[in-house]
Design a protein that fits this description.
GO terms for molecular function: heme binding; metal ion binding; peroxidase activity. Its cofactor is heme b. This is Tat pathway signal protein. By secondary structure, this protein is an alpha+beta fold. Helices cover 27% and strands 17% of the residues. The chain is built from 14 helices and 14 strands. The strands form 4 sheets. Strands 5, 10, 11, 12, 13 and 14 form a 6-stranded mixed beta sheet that branches. It has a 4-stranded antiparallel beta sheet with strand order 4-6-3-9. A hairpin with a 2-residue loop joins strand 7 and strand 8. It binds protoporphyrin IX containing FE (HEM). The site of protoporphyrin IX containing FE has 28 residues, from strand 10, helix 13, strand 13 and helix 14.
C-alpha cells in the first residue's frame, strides 16, 4: 500500500517511466500494482495484418468512432554499422526479433503495436535505387523559417501500447537486456544488428498532458492544460473524417505494395502566449478556423465536434477572406487546402503524440501518406506563406499555430509491408 509521499513519488516514477526507460523504470511500473497479464499474440503470424501500419482496427475508439492512439509511445532510431548493405544473417536476426514480439503480444493497444521503417540513406547502401513507385526523398526544411536537424539513421522502430510496462519490456528485450518478453524467449535481439542512435518517447490521451505539465519548459507556470485534453494545446485532433484511411495511404503497386511512407517531425512547443495572451475563442480560431470561433462550434476540448473537425470546403476556400475579416486564420483550415484529393478524399493519416523529452513540451508527428511529397505539400499549405502579404497576417503571427511550434527534426521513412520488414532490399 502506498500513501502520502510514497504515493506522490510512485506517481512521479510512473509518469516518467517510458520517458526514462531502462530496467529501473520497468520494475517501477511492475511494482505499481499486481500487473494484469498482457494478452499474447498468435503462434501463426499469417493471421496478422499484412500492413505494418494497419493499427486502426487494433486500437480503442471513442464514442464517435475516432481512433484513440495507444497512450504510451516510443521511437527508436537505429543505425547499422559500416556503409554497405546488410547481410542475410542480419536480416534473419531482425525478423526473428520482430516475430518474437508478434508472438509475445497481441497486436492491439492492450498488447503492443509496432512497425519498423527505413530511411533513404538506408536504401542508399544498395547499388539498385528505389523503384519509381516509392517517393522517398531525403528530409529537408519545409518552411523558410525552420532549421531542423535531419534524421538520417537507417531505421525507425515505433512501439505503442496503452501499457507503459509493455513498451518498456519490449524495449528491454529488443536491446538484449532481458532474455524473454511476455514469457517468450528472444532468439535474437535488435541490437545484434543495429545500434540505438536515439530514443524518443511520448504519450497521448486525455489527462496525460495535464498530468505532466508542471514545471515543463514551454508550458506556463499556471499549468493551464485542461485535464480532459489529450494534447498540450488543449484540444482533440485526429477526427475520423479528417484523417486518410489506411487504404488510402497504402502503396498499391511496386515491390513495396502494402507499405506506406512516414514523415516524422519533432516540434518544440512554447505555449506561454497561447494560453497567456489568447482567449479560448482566439485559440479556437487559430487552431480550427475563425468561423469555428464565431459560430461557437468548439466546446471545451472539442468533443462536441463528433467525428469531424467541421472544416468545410467553404472554410478552405475562404482562408484569405477570413484573414481579412477576422485578422487571423486557422491551422486546420490552412493545412486542409492541400490535404484533399480532387474528389475530396483526405490525403494524410496523422498519428501525432506529445512528449516531455529533454524536459520540454514537444510533439512527435508521424504522418503516413502514399508519397512523402504529399506531406511536403500539406506542410507548405500549413506554412501560409502565401497569406503573409495580408495586413493582419505575418509569417508566424495570426497564422494558425506557427507562433507556438518550432520544428527541431525531420525524417522520412518507408514502412514496408510486414513480409519485407526485415532489412528490405530496394528491389525484390
Ligand atoms: C502542436 C502541434 C499541432 C496541433 C496541436 C495540431 C492540432 C490540430 C487540430 C486540432 C486539427 C483539427 C482537427 C483535426 O482534423 O485533427 C488539426 C488538423 C490538421 N493538422 Fe494539425 N496540429 C499540429 C501540428 C500539425 C503539423 C506539424 C502538421 C503538418 C503538416 C499538421 C497538419 C494538420 C492537417 C493536415 C490537418 C487536417 C486538416 C484537414 O484536412 O481537415 N498539424 N491539427
Amino acid at each position: 500500500m502506498f500513501g502520502g509521499e510514497d504515493e506522490t513519488s510512485r506517481r512521479a516514477v510512473l509518469k516518467g517511466a517510458v520517458a526514462v526507460g531502462g530496467a529501473a523504470a520497468l520494475s517501477a511500473c511492475l511494482e505499481e500494482t499486481e500487473p494484469e497479464p498482457v494478452p499474447s499474440g498468435p503462434d501463426d503470424p499469417s493471421s496478422l495484418p499484412a500492413r505494418q501500419h494497419a493499427w486502426n482496427d487494433h486500437v480503442r475508439t471513442d464514442d464517435h468512432g475516432n481512433t484513440l492512439l495507444p497512450r504510451h509511445q516510443l521511437l527508436l532510431y537505429l543505425t547499422l554499422p559500416g556503409d554497405g548493405p546488410p547481410d542475410a544473417a542480419a536480416r534473419r536476426d531482425v525478423e526473428s526479433a520482430l516475430r518474437t514480439l508478434d508472438r509475445a503480444y497481441e497486436r492491439s493497444s492492450d498488447g503492443l503495436l509496432h512497425s519498423i521503417a527505413y530511411s533513404p540513406r538506408y536504401f542508399g547502401r544498395f547499388e539498385a535505387g528505389l523503384p519509381d513507385s516509392v517517393d522517398l526523398p531525403e528530409p529537408r526544411a519545409l518552411s523558410p523559417f525552420e532549421t531542423p536537424e535531419f534524421d538520417r539513421q537507417d531505421a525507425l522502430l515505433h512501439l505503442a501500447s496503452d501499457r507503459a510496462d509493455v513498451v518498456l519490456a519490449a524495449e528491454e528485450a529488443l536491446r538484449g537486456n532481458e532474455p524473454t518478453v511476455n514469457g517468450r524467449e528472444m532468439e535474437s535481439t535488435l541490437t545484434d544488428v543495429f545500434e540505438v542512435a536515439d530514443r524518443r518517447s511520448g504519450f497521448v490521451g486525455a489527462g496525460m498532458p495535464a498530468e505532466r505539465q508542471d514545471g515543463l519548459a514551454g508550458i506556463p507556470s499556471s499549468n493551464p492544460v485542461p485535464e480532459e485534453s489529450p494534447l498540450f494545446m488543449g484540444f482533440i485532433a485526429g477526427f475520423r473524417e479528417n484523417q486518410a484511411t489506411e487504404d488510402h495511404v497504402t502503396l498499391s503497386e511496386g515491390p513495396f505494395a502494402g507499405g506506406t511512407t512516414k514523415h516524422v517531425s519533432n516540434l518544440r512547443m512554447r505555449l506561454e502566449d497561447w494560453y497567456g495572451e489568447q482567449s479560448f475563442e482566439e485559440r479556437v480560431a487559430e487552431l480550427f478556423s475563425p468561423v469555428h470561433a464565431e459560430e461557437g462550434l468548439v466546446d471545451g476540448v472539442g468533443e462536441d465536434l463528433g467525428d469531424d473537425s467541421g472544416i468545410t470546403q467553404e472554410m478552405i476556400e475562404n482562408v484569405r477572406s477570413n484573414a481579412r475579416q477576422f485578422g487571423r486564420v486557422g491551422h486546420a483550415q490552412k493545412a486542409a487546402r492541400a490535404n484533399r484529393e480532387e474528389d475530396g478524399t483526405v490525403r494524410t493519416l496523422r498519428r501525432h503524440f506529445e512528449s516531455t523529452d529533454d524536459d520540454e513540451a514537444s510533439l512527435h508527428f508521424p504522418s503516413l501518406q502514399r508519397r512523402i511529397t504529399t506531406f511536403e505539400e500539406v506542410r507548405e499549405a500549413m506554412n501560409g506563406t502565401d497569406l503573409a502579404d495580408l495586413p493582419a497576417i505575418r509569417q508566424r503571427v495570426n497564422n494558425g499555430i506557427l507562433e507556438y511550434i518550432f520544428v527541431k527534426r525531420r525524417g522520412n521513412f518507408l514502412v514496408p509491408p510486414r513480409s519485407l520488414r526485415a532489412l528490405p532490399t530496394p528491389e525484390r
